[in-house]
TrEMBL record:
<feature type="transmembrane region" description="Helical">
    <location>
        <begin position="203"/>
        <end position="226"/>
    </location>
</feature>
<keyword id="KW-1133">Transmembrane helix</keyword>
<keyword id="KW-0472">Membrane</keyword>
<keyword id="KW-0808">Transferase</keyword>
<dbReference type="InterPro" id="IPR050297">
    <property type="entry name" value="LipidA_mod_glycosyltrf_83"/>
</dbReference>
<protein>
    <recommendedName>
        <fullName>UDP phosphate-alpha-4-amino-4-deoxy-L-arabinose arabinosyl transferase</fullName>
    </recommendedName>
</protein>
<feature type="transmembrane region" description="Helical">
    <location>
        <begin position="88"/>
        <end position="107"/>
    </location>
</feature>
<keyword id="KW-0812">Transmembrane</keyword>
<feature type="transmembrane region" description="Helical">
    <location>
        <begin position="294"/>
        <end position="312"/>
    </location>
</feature>
<feature type="transmembrane region" description="Helical">
    <location>
        <begin position="261"/>
        <end position="282"/>
    </location>
</feature>
<feature type="transmembrane region" description="Helical">
    <location>
        <begin position="346"/>
        <end position="370"/>
    </location>
</feature>
<feature type="transmembrane region" description="Helical">
    <location>
        <begin position="318"/>
        <end position="334"/>
    </location>
</feature>
<feature type="transmembrane region" description="Helical">
    <location>
        <begin position="172"/>
        <end position="196"/>
    </location>
</feature>
<feature type="transmembrane region" description="Helical">
    <location>
        <begin position="420"/>
        <end position="439"/>
    </location>
</feature>
<keyword id="KW-0328">Glycosyltransferase</keyword>
<keyword id="KW-1003">Cell membrane</keyword>
Length: 543
């Protein structure tokens, strides 16, 4: 099979990586749902140093092990003098994405040889579903890094058994300490599935698996042992409800999987990876030549997809681990690809132009008070409560990023490589529009600062009177940010018997129905988040 074109030069490639990674990491408050509760857990660990039991607003929160919270607490303490606490903590997401990118590059070199790591990363950075999630304060960024390094171990196993074992074991440990059993389970099943091929039934591969097991077990066992020593009941909650219960759907912790969810999600989420991967498989089928080098990414992709399809819960976020192995398969599709048809170039150009036009018009409407009924209606619908404001610093940063990407665009490349390189540059430019010019308005509609800060004086008066505040229907993101902005930990009626003795109640509702008997009471204070038409909060004095 023909080799791919020469990899992108280092200077344009690094510029692409930085312009993709940095915008969106700082400049906004924690957003619901995932960032908000994650930030609450990070704050607790930073303040207490307790890495065994994550705590959210005074209650144990055992959905995920502590690795990401620990690293985010380090970046928060390190950079909080220069950045706000949420931005400083969010740098951990960028760190884990960078670590994962290095792992994917290593995996590509293990499969295809030197020079392929940059192409694998360029393909991954051009994936439609990755940018938003990669810039959020969520544990899934560390899980993605674990998958990348575990995949690197599988890809190096035939030629470098000892380093491969170290990579596979480290990836499994990172994945476990990020989100529990899902990551190491998928890596282990994929590693064992490779034994079905005769080229992996060797002492060298068994050595890789033995080393991986020795590296993967100590830290997860240490955390599990410490958790069990602290509380067997909490250990059972973590193991049963948050791992097997979530998979079976008995824990009712996530959105239930709709019929065909991933079949509808992956076609846009994994663009442009899956067409290239299918091209590689189609070419192999025509030539009746199965590439042994494809087995590691095929095994990991197939196992992970099967687990996701079998799980009772489903979110597009859960599909992140599918992207690294799919990127390696897509890289095989790029190898030897000829010049793409002209209609495809025009189609992609028109698509990019339409998206660019929409985002730039939106940026203009968000920045300048346009005398247009259409612009005003768009603002009222998309960003209620936002007053257009021109932020010259944001526009200067955007123009500088655009100029740098235009310089990267000029790098000559032949055929399909040119199309994919420019697709990644175009998607990065679109992300820069969103993460720089749209970010203030998005933050205005997604944050809780104004809503909960306005509540703080009333809560201070309640605290001075020695009264407690109960809550009903208050979600995990809201509990975390209520403590951050207003300094309040409520006693939840759903979980605390002492909540029934409180004189005050904070009620959160969706779509405004108030449950009995509170529908007969008049709230002392009612408020909602800017731009949110669903959530409403009411503060009641009960007696």
């Amino acid at each position: 099979m023909a080799e791919p074109p020469a990899p992108p030069r280092w200077a344009p490639f690094l510029a692409l990586c930085l312009l993709w990674l940095l915008p969106g990491l700082i400049g906004h408050e924690p957003w619901k749902p995932d960032e908000a509760y994650t930030f609450g857990l990070v704050r607790h660990l930073a303040a207490s140093g307790d890495w065994v039991v994550p705590m959210l607003a005074g209650e144990p929160f055992l959905e995920k092990p502590p690795l990401f919270f620990l690293t985010a607490s380090w970046t928060m303490r390190l950079f909080e003098g220069w950045l706000g606490a949420p931005d400083a903590a969010r740098l951990a997401a960028g760190l884990w994405i960078a670590i994962g990118g290095l792992g994917l590059a290593s995996a590509a070199r293990g499969l295809y040889g030197p020079g392929h790591g940059r192409w694998a990363l360029a393909l991954l950075l051009g994936t439609v579903g990755l940018p938003l999630r990669a810039h959020q304060l969520i544990t899934d960024t560390a899980l993605l890094a674990g998958f990348c390094w575990g995949l690197a171990g599988l890809c190096h196993a035939k030629d470098r058994p000892v380093p491969a074992g170290l990579m596979l074991g480290a990836g499994a440990a990172i994945a476990f300490l990020s989100k529990g059993l899902l990551g190491p389970g998928c890596l282990a099943i994929a590693a064992l599935a490779l034994l079905g091929h005769r080229s992996y039934r060797s002492l060298a591969y068994l050595q890789t698996l033995a080393i991986a097991l020795a590296i993967a077990l100590p830290l997860p066992l240490c955390w599990m042992f410490s958790l069990h020593q602290r509380s067997p009941a909490l250990f059972h909650v973590w193991l049963d409800a948050n791992n097997f219960g979530r998979f079976r759907g008995t824990a009712q912790l996530g959105p239930r999987a709709a019929r065909g969810f991933y079949g509808l999600t992956l076609p846009w989420y994994a663009l442009p990876l899956w067409p290239l991967a299918l091209l590689a498989l189609w070419r192999a089928g025509r030539s009746r030549f199965a590439k042994v080098e494809w087995l590691p990414p095929l095994a990991l992709f197939g196992v992970t997809l099967a687990v996701l399809l079998a799980a009772a819960d489903a979110r597009e976020l859960y599909a992140l681990p599918l992207l690294p192995p799919l990127a390696l398969l897509a890289l095989s599709g790029l190898r030897g690809a000829g010049t793409p048809p002209r209609w495809l170039k025009w189609l992609l150009a028109l698509l990019m132009a339409a998206l660019a036009g929409y985002l730039l018009l939106g940026a203009a409407a968000l920045s300048f008070p346009l005398d247009s009924i259409l612009a005003r209606r768009w603002l009222e619908h998309r960003f209620p409560g936002w007053a257009p404001r021109f932020l010259p610093g944001d526009w200067l940063r955007f123009l500088a990023a655009s100029a740098l990407l235009a310089w990267c665009w000029r790098q000559p490349m032949p055929g399909a490589a040119s199309l994919l390189w420019r697709w990644s540059l175009g998607l990065t430019w679109l992300w820069c529009v969103m993460a720089i010019l749209w970010l203030p308005a998005l933050d205005h509609g997604m944050r809780y600062r104004e809503a909960f800060s306005a509540l703080k004086p009333r809560l201070d008066n309640i605290a001075r009177g020695g009264d407690c505040v109960a809550s009903l229907g208050l979600g995990e993101p809201q509990r975390a940010l209520l403590e951050y902005y207003a300094g309040l930990r409520t006693l939840r009626l759903e979980a605390s018997p002492a909540a029934g003795r409180c004189r005050w109640l904070l009620l959160q509702t969706l779509h405004d129905p108030v449950p009995s008997p509170y529908d007969a009471l008049r709230p002392v204070y009612a408020f909602q988040r800017p731009g949110d038409r669903k959530e409403r909060f009411r503060l009641y004095k009960l007696w």
